[in-house]
C-alpha cells in the first residue's frame, strides 16, 4: 500500500499489523541523544526546535555521505533505546515511528492512546533506504553529528506495520 506523509488518523486507522507500506513525503531522523533532548524540552515546557505534531520519525543510523550523494547508507537502529522517551513524544503529537525490534508495553499503550503507529524497517537495507531519500536537510541539534535531527524527503520508502493503532503487534 502506498501512503503519503504526513500521516492522518484516517490513514493510520486503515493500516494493520503486517501491512507492507511504501511511504512518500517527509520523515525526520532522530536517535537516542536527540530523543533525550526532545524529552527534556517537553518536560521543561519548552518549545521543540521542530514541530513533530503529526510527523513520523525514523530511528536511523546513517553512514558518512559519499561525494555526490544525498545521504550515505542509512539503516534502521534498534527502537527500544527510544522507549523511555517515546510515550511523551506520542502524547505531544508524534504519529509515526520507524525502527527495528520490539517496543515496551508503555510504547504500545501510548500508540493506542494517541492513534499512532510503529513501522518496522528492514535491517541490512541501508543502501536501499539511501536510494529512497530524495532530500536530506539538517534541522536540529547540529552538534550531535550523525545523531542530529534531519528532515528527509522520501519516495516509496518500504516499511511494514509492526504495531498498529489498536495495539496489534507483530512481536507478539
Compact summary:
With 172 residues, the protein is an alpha/beta fold. It is built from 5 helices and 9 strands, in the order βαβαβββαβαβαββ.
| Proper CATH architecture | Alpha-Beta Barrel
* Overall mean confidence score, pLDDT: 96
CATH topology: fumarase
Shape: globular
Report the span from N to C terminus: 23 Å
Number of helices: 5
Uncertain residue segments: none
What is the CATH homologous superfamily assignment? Fe-S hydro-lyase, tartrate dehydratase beta-type, catalytic domain
Topology:
Layout: E1 2-4, H1 9-14, E2 20-29, H2 32-43, E3 56-58, E4 60-62, E5 74-76, H3 86-92, E6 96-99, H4 105-114, E7 117-120, H5 126-132, E8 133-140, E9 149-163
Parallel strand pairs: 1-2, 2-3, 3-6, 6-7
Antiparallel strand pairs: 2-9, 4-5, 7-9, 8-9
Tell me about this structure:
The chain is α/β, with parallel strands linked by helices and 172 residues long. The protein has a single domain, classed as fumarase, CATH 3.20.130. Helix content is 24%, strand content 31%. The chain is built from 5 helices and 9 strands. A 5-stranded mixed barrel has the order 2-3-6-7-9. Helix 2 packs across helix 3. The radius of gyration is 15 Å and the shape is globular. The model has no long low-confidence stretch (mean pLDDT 96).
